[in-house]
Write a structure and sequence with these properties.
- The chain is an alpha/beta fold and about 250 residues long.
- The chain has a single domain (about 5-250), classed as NAD(P)-binding Rossmann-like Domain (Rossmann fold, 3-Layer(aba) Sandwich), CATH 3.40.50.
- Helix content is about 40%, strand content about 15%.
- It is built from 7 helices and 7 strands, in the order E-H-E-H-E-H-E-H-E-H-E-H-H-E.
- It has helices at about 15-25, 40-50, 65-80, 105-130, 150-170, 205-210, 220-230, and strands spanning about 5-10, 30-35, 55-60, 85, 135-140, 175-185, 240-245.
- It has a 7-stranded parallel beta sheet with strand order 3-2-1-4-5-6-7, sandwiched between helices.
- Strand 5 (about 135-140), helix 5 and strand 6 (about 175-185) form a beta-alpha-beta unit.
């Protein structure tokens, strides 16, 4: 069974991993709604990919409940249904500060976007997903499993996404399947909007840290997202898939 004609909403679909997922879904015959806070990126991606299939950009701040409700409503207005939700949008660690210096404002901002945003999108998408044996794909990070110093807020949010995934799988099954992807080091510099796009600057040492011998590409995550959206994975739910070239399994001694 193909996914032709299915409707997918991808948060943060204007740049990076979300943009790669949008491209892959369009190439496979899906209709895509980009829920994106960066209007420049959203409009650029909509125009760039318009020749691949049906795609629409909808301004969305996933940390704001009202714009989330509007994005879901707009999707239904435009296409009459929603089959797949990809909770991808996130922000990087804002301060990278020691815990004793991390401001509550920065902590709350990151948790609101990287964790609460997925809750809000899921809450308002579920009634429509239930009508079509829907799929939710959450994008976490290997930071849910391993960390660098001073990344408590980011790691906490991504760890929460993994737990959110298996909780949802039990709450929403069998009508809706819910899975998670935890990307590792993915070079996204050339998947940004035009104003900030550049070629990734990678070294031989960067490659050697990965057992597969290279740094990840957004297409690697998009391939896993397509598999998890497809009927071929219909016996899989509540799982977290690590897409990191083996990096979390490699012992590194400096």
């Amino acid at each position: 069974m193909s996914l032709i004609g299915k409707v997918a909403l991808i948060t943060g679909g204007g740049q990076g991993i979300g943009k790669a997922i949008a491209q892959r879904f369009l190439k496979e015959g899906l209709t895509v709604v980009i829920a994106e806070i960066d209007q420049e990126a959203g409009k650029e991606t909509e125009a760039e990919y318009s020749n691949l299939g049906k795609i629409r950009f909808v301004y969305t701040n996933i940390a704001c409940e009202e714009t989330v409700k509007q994005a879901i409503a707009k999707t239904i207005e435009l296409f009459g249904k929603l089959d797949i939700l990809v909770n991808n949008a996130a922000i990087a660690n804002p301060e990278n500060a020691p815990i004793t210096q991390l401001s509550l404002e920065s902590w709350n901002r990151l948790i609101a976007t990287n964790l609460t945003g997925s809750f809000l999108c899921t809450k308002y998408a579920v009634p429509y997903l239930r009508n079509h044996q829907g799929v939710i794909i959450n994008i976490a990070s290997t930071r849910a499993l391993m960390s660098e110093p001073h990344t408590e807020a980011y790691s906490t949010a991504k760890g929460g996404i993994v737990a959110f995934t298996h909780a949802l799988a039990n709450s929403l099954g069998p009508e809706i399947r819910v899975n998670c992807i935890s990307p590792g080091w993915i070079a996204v510099q050339d998947w940004q909007k035009q104003a900030s796009r550049q070629e990734p600057q990678l070294t031989q040492q960067d490659y050697q840290q990965h057992p597969v011998g290279r740094v990840g590409k957004p297409e690697d995550v998009a391939a896993m997202a397509f598999y998890l959206a497809s009927p071929e994975s219909d016996f899989i739910t509540g799982a977290n898939f690590i897409v990191d070239g083996g990096m979390t399994r490699k012992m590194i001694y400096l």
